[in-house]
Amino acid sequence: MSREIALKGKIAVVAGGTRGAGRGISVKLGEAGATVYVTGRTTNSNQSPMGRKETIEETAELVTKAGGTGIPVKVDHTVESDVISLFDKIKKEHGRLDILVNDIWGGDPLTEWGKPIGTHDLNNGLQIQKQAVQSHIVTAHYSIPLFRENKKGLIIEITDGVDYKPRGNFYYSLAKISNIHMAQAMAQDLKDFNITAIAVTPGFLRSEAMLEYFGVTEENWKEGAKDDPHFIASETPSYIGEAIKCLASDPKIASKTGGVYSTWELSEVYGFKDIDGTQPHWGKYYKNNVET
């Protein structure tokens, strides 16, 4: 079956699908025919503390335009009742769930780079864990009954990095590494229910916020490398979207359960490319230009 229709009839949730990787993933799942529940805190009438302009309604419209069915649902994944209501809605409307992508983050304004533990604001650090770890746990917990009714399913934890090495900030590292271990632990817990759990990382993500940070657009993004040479190896949210679409369409996905995968490695396995026809490989770039 073509990847472009491989997910027709499938029900997916992209938790944290408002912008960035979540939006790229939502659109690509829609491109493959899925019905995608796009969740987040920013709507056409309500802005989250992130202060960004992108909304869940915009992402849902892009999903539908791509060929799927986009359904925006306002959810604060740190609020248990919001998460319960989301999955009650899906159960009522479809009776099952096929794919959960856990991409909740919201930690950018809370992360104090350059400040080690002991000087980093404690409340901000603990809030990162609430938004990027606890929210993932709550969301996964309430999704499991729907997966078990379906007797199969795919849970994808979006993280940063493929290992357990520190990532430059204590609280950031703790959150992203926790996402990896969550996937590995869920794979162990859920193997008897035919539920696959994996973690996936992008490389240097060229998100909407990152484009603004460098003062560029997608059309002239390479200009950003004048400020940070590593930006030249960045990738669009569409790249991780392609990765997730390929994984979700893979009939042998169960063999990957418990694994940690990167966009650059998956591009070599599945042969997908970024929107400009290239195959960014952050792993090779990092080894040759950052670690040296």
TrEMBL record:
Gene3D superfamilies: NAD(P)-binding Rossmann-like Domain (3.40.50.720). SUPFAM superfamilies: NAD(P)-binding Rossmann-fold domains. This is SDR family oxidoreductase. It holds the Pfam family adh_short. It comes from the Bacteria.
